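Re: the request from the purification team.
They wanted to know what the chain is likely to look like in 3D before they choose a buffer screen. I agreed to run a prediction and write the result into the notebook, where they can find it.
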Amino acid sequence: QVQLVESGGGLVQAGGSLRLSCAASGRAFGRYYMGWFRQAPGKERDFVAAIGRSGDTTYYADSVKDRFAISRDNDKNTVVLQMNSLKPEDTAVYYCAAGADYTLRYATNQADYGSWGQGTQVTVSS
């Protein structure tokens, strides 16, 4: 498995931007498809965005489409979630995840991810 550490969370006003990073340790980062999920207080953890192993495939939840962008750098073992036009409803703990199911190019289901970071808090004030 790969170890994941998120960073970049914080407090931002509505309409602002934040850039979350996820650093992966271990070898063969390029073998994993990566995803971001979020969990708001009192709610279940939801899918946000996913990216394929080479970075050429991305997929977004409807709620963040056209506002968020996921990217990865396999040389630096990092995946980034650029969040623009933030809304108060984006407030949540954001988690980075890695999956290795060879039958999938990417995944939106939490069960398809085997490694998770500890999460980083994003708070958007109105």
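For the purification team: DSSP finds no helices and eleven strands in the chain.
Please add any questions underneath this entry.
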